[in-house]
Amino acid sequence: MKLTVWTYEGPPHVGAMRVATGMRGLHYVLHAPQGDTYADLLFTMIERRDHRPPVTYTTFQARDLGSDTANLFTTACHDAYSRFQPQALIVGSSCTAELIQDDPAGLAEAMGLPIPVIALELPSYQRKENFGADETFYQLVRHLAGPMERTARPSVNLLGPTALGFRHRDDITEVTALLDEMGISVNVCAPMGATPADLARLGAAHANILMYPETAEAAARWCEKSLGQPYTRTVPIGVGATRDFVDEIAGLLDVAPRLDTSRLRLPWYSASVDSTYLTGKRVFLFGDATHVAAAARVARDEMGFEVAGLGCFNREFARPIRQLAREYGVEALITDDYLEVERTIEAAAPEMILGTQMERHIGKRLGIPCAVISAPMHVQDFPARYSPQMGIEGANVLFDTWVHPLVMGLEEHLLHMFREDFEFHDAAGASHHGGKAVVRETASSTPEITVPEAGPVWLDAAERELRKVPFFVRGKARRNTETFAAEKGVAEIGVETLYEAKAHYAR
């Protein structure tokens, strides 16, 4: 088993918890051993919620396996109904409980509770978290929604936002405002904020906004087929995609498209001299398919970056991501192995990473700036402030969060360049404390010689010169120089060898 910190997706029952925790009036009874209650921490700690998830665990232990664990499950269901009085109940097993084959679906059907009880069949050893969320929401919609008369005013449902989603809370606000500008109302937003009774009203909307395909595409397809509701294909992340989204929904509902771009702050920067620092920066993108696809378009078409590589961890979207990669002239990376992601990033040697919390760790190790664009993420990616990814304000947020790592990276590079200066070296203290600078002793200023296990030796002068190379490409410069020296049979790398290698690879 992988440690949680190095797992892109949890098991599918965590996806079901994301749906249940985002909703109101829904309770999840999970047949699981005591250790699986760790999932509570994901919501209460990382997302900083003020209440625990609406989940009841059977929490069987090893000694219970020789007795009737099925009775533990039915007791937990009755207790959950009596205590929480939910509008509906979902039931299922964790990956561990799946092995004992107690059949929660059959047990739930035989209990005769006076509320809808929806059984989840989530194959824990074949599928993962996003599938669990998608399947759970689909089953809820399929069991609770039905055809009904449309609203008098053009209206839509927002489908896909869940608990533990990347900025889902703020995306809802931004998309709702975009729709309101065109006179379109939101009928139901689900799963986040919805009740089972709200899901029963889904059929009143004229169309559906598919905000996150990973968690709601199955439900959107069912609504299109069974309720006659078309759904959007454009995710409004970035200026261009937001404009396309507005045109798409206006066409679906036969209303006039309208988009207020007065809040957009990117154009003035794009026209400035400072923006030339960003042009052509090579970026590597990795995360869930929806955010990677959107970020690739923003990076190339709106920020002037070069996409050096891209990929996703959710294999359900491998085909569209491979097709997208071909359009960008790179090879798609489809994997959930963070070590493979790290090796690929290191080989590509980008100047910035747009990824998940995992790539943030990778970037720290490789000395490459990273901006988080996708789940999984940590507590710092759940800001208290308004920080959407979608719409016009979302475009402003993207601009800030992508530019700052590069600008800060430049500042760090300058500090590295002047690290031997009498005022800026480590022992000098903060430069704004006047008169505190001390001269570094000569011995301490001499960097250690890097001696590879097998290969050329770096001389002092070459090491100092290498430090002048920006840190985000320094690793590539070192590797190229060592390769060049090895091919030429050079045993010691001096400044001359460094520049000869630079000239060789610049041809």
Describe this structure in words.
The protein has helices spanning 12-22, 39-46, 69-84, 95-98, 104-111, 129-144, 168-181, 196-199, 213-226, 239-253, 266-270, 289-302, 318-327, 338-348, 357-366, 391-417, 442-445, 460-466, 471-488, 495-506; strands at residues 26-31, 55-57, 88-93, 117-119, 155-159, 185-190, 207-210, 282-287, 306-312, 332-334, 352-355, 370-372, 457-458, 492-493. It has 507 residues and is α/β, with parallel strands linked by helices. The protein folds into 4 domains: 4-128, Nitrogenase molybdenum iron protein domain (Rossmann fold, 3-Layer(aba) Sandwich), CATH 3.40.50; 145-253, Rossmann fold (3-Layer(aba) Sandwich); 266-414, Rossmann fold; 448-506, Orthogonal Bundle (Helicase, Ruva Protein, domain 3). Strands 10-9-8-11-12 form a 5-stranded parallel sheet, with helices on both faces. Residues 431-437 and 442-452 have low confidence and may be disordered.
How are the SSEs ordered, and which strands pair?
Elements: H1 12-22, E1 26-31, H2 39-46, E2 55-57, H3 69-84, E3 88-93, H4 95-98, H5 104-111, E4 117-119, H6 129-144, E5 155-159, H7 168-181, E6 185-190, H8 196-199, E7 207-210, H9 213-226, H10 239-253, H11 266-270, E8 282-287, H12 289-302, E9 306-312, H13 318-327, E10 332-334, H14 338-348, E11 352-355, H15 357-366, E12 370-372, H16 391-417, H17 442-445, E13 457-458, H18 460-466, H19 471-488, E14 492-493, H20 495-506
Helix pairs in contact: 1-6, 3-5, 6-9, 7-16, 14-15, 18-20, 19-20
InterPro entries: ChlB/BchB/BchZ (IPR050152), LI-POR_suB-like_C (IPR013580), Nase/OxRdtase_comp1 (IPR000510), P-CP_red_C (IPR042298), Protochl_reductB (IPR005969), Protochlorophyllide_Rdtase (IPR016209)
Binding site for [4Fe-4S] cluster: 36
Pathway: Porphyrin-containing compound metabolism; bacteriochlorophyll biosynthesis (light-independent)
